[in-house]
Design brief:
Elements lengths: L25 E3 L2 E3 L2 H10 L4 E5 L2 H10 L22 E5 L7 H10 L5 E5 H6 L20 E3 L6 H17 L8 H9 L4
Parallel strand pairs: 3-4, 4-5, 5-6
Antiparallel strand pairs: 1-2
The chain binds iron/sulfur cluster.
Length: 193
Amino acid sequence: MSEKKDHLAPTQKREKPTIVEPPPGTMGTGFFTTSMDKAIGLARKNSLWPLPFATSCCGIEFMSTMSSHYDLSRFGMERLSFSPRQSDLLMVMGTIAKKMGPVLREVYTQMAEPKWVLSMGACASSGGIFDSYSVLQGIDRVIPVDVYIPGCPPRPEQVIDGILKIQELAQNESLRRRYSKEYEDLLTKYKID
Ligand code: SF4
């Protein structure tokens, strides 16, 4: 029987894989302390549940991002949620018709806080090439957006880059941001209670 070969050079040591970096804190033998917001930020960052609101070709590109080749499970988000109440990342992908605007808004308002919005591709972000009477010229006309991904369609690497930006927001956001006046004003601007 042939032995399984290790491709490391004899002088190289195999390092233990790190699943996620620990947040800043104090570490000793058998204990680790950090602050509450950092622990919650870490958990939020690595357990985002996306709701794919896909209407056209960008949604197909997202399917390839979900596939094993790119593997979104690495980011703790292999569980797509088709229920707004069990998701915290709204991913809007594709051309959004004006008639679809209120539906998108309804989905957004049904999601519990904290929630984030990722606009994938030119159509969702700006209407794209469809500068017509029937197409919404950007989803930020109906809901607030946290991260935009450019492209028509964006490559999976760009989608992953956008997701990493959302993770950064989720990890570093103050626990009180959702109660802040700034956030309240933002929702008031969109006439969302
Ligand atoms: S941005 Fe391009 S690929 Fe994405 S939905 Fe619009 S036309 Fe399709």
